[in-house]
Amino acid sequence: MKPYLPLFRNKFESAAVFAVLFTILLVNTALKYVDFLEFKSHTWATFRGDLVNIIPLSAKDGRSYRRLYIKNNDGVTLTAAYFAKDEFKLNMRMGFRVKTEGVDFLSFLKRRFYAQSVLVWANENGEVKLRDKIFDFIASQHEANITKELFGALFLAFPISKELRDEVQLLGSAHIIAISGFHLGIIFGFLYAFLRLPYCFLQNRYFPYRNARWDISLIIFILLGGYLWLIDMTPSFLRSYVMGCAGFLFLWRGINIVNFQTLFLCAAFLVSLFPHLAFNVGFILSCFGVFFIFVYVRHFGDKFKIWQSALILNFWLFFAMIPLAHYWFGMLSPAQFACIPLSLLFIVFYPAEAFLHVIGEGGILDGLIIKLLNFKAYNIDLKTPLWLLLVYIALSLGAMRSRIFMLSLALFGGSFFLFLIG
Q1: pTM attached to this predicted model
Q2: For the segment 276-298, what is each residue's pLDDT rounded down to a tens digit?
Q3: Domains in the chain, please, with CATH?
Q4: Among candidate residues 94, 152, 100, the one with its CA nearest the CA of residue 125
Q5: What DSSP state is assigned to residue 72?
């Protein structure tokens, strides 16, 4: 077997590629700034979009209000506070007058901003998208709203309520709900097993000269591209899809894909095209998840059997990701250890539930799922301070080369639970 080729032949080549990507990033950021100036040139701007999420909250003075998330056709999300008692339904088409004064460029660049807004009109969306039709089919198989939300998120990347978000964070399973590379790997493996037999039957009869692995993989990536479009270019899945396509092409060219350069190249490529991804939590966590997998492979990939590595890797990712995840999400509980067996069970659960939903029997396991989601456990709110996060990132960079730094990261994450126990 020939040794793998490096992604870049020398440092100059890699510097040139990243310089080009950085230039593209600057150009796209400048174009966004031009749009921002146009947006700010008016005191009030018009914003039209679909209502994608509603979160009930209470103001400091005790008044109840709702936080509305309205997403327009360009993927920009407006967050608006609404105090009136009007009833709204998800996917309603809404029009707002937005006061531009309080919107800064960073918020505008993130494509997700809060602004003082006045509702002008709201009506039922006459255009029913394919994604909404599929969600209606999924929701019809469940009685409880919590399972409707859960499977809407699992299969279609629909936003979830604060209640469900708290439940999955308590179980440490937020990475299971957010469609990412974990899901892509399961989908790819399932489709490959499903397509291999009929493809090989046709190949043996009509085109024995073709490479089955190449053709089946290409077909799957085309299908996954359609799925990416269907779920509205979810950032974490977009990262995994682009990296999967790049890995597929690099592998057939004899290039080593399990290395940090591949991850950095794909992340830089996406951020240069879509600058808002640099601020997207799902995208950042997805990148770090792959980064820590590569750290493990670098230092221990050849030390254990496959089943042993699968188990160890889950423990490693759990502890390594804790400080980063808790910079944004504060809930910490001993119940989050459940994410390790849940992640392993999910490999079977995900395709099984997809099949059950296709045949209209998706609600069979709802009773068990609701009991799991209703599980209550002791928890505290503990967020990683910024200075500690910077130390953590420095250790992460050191872990690329040193096993000592890698083990320090695991100890770093374990200290959060030591704090909880203490």
Answers
A1: 0.89
A2: 999 999 899 999 999 999 999 99
A3: 42-123 (2.40.50), 170-421 (no CATH)
A4: 94
A5: -
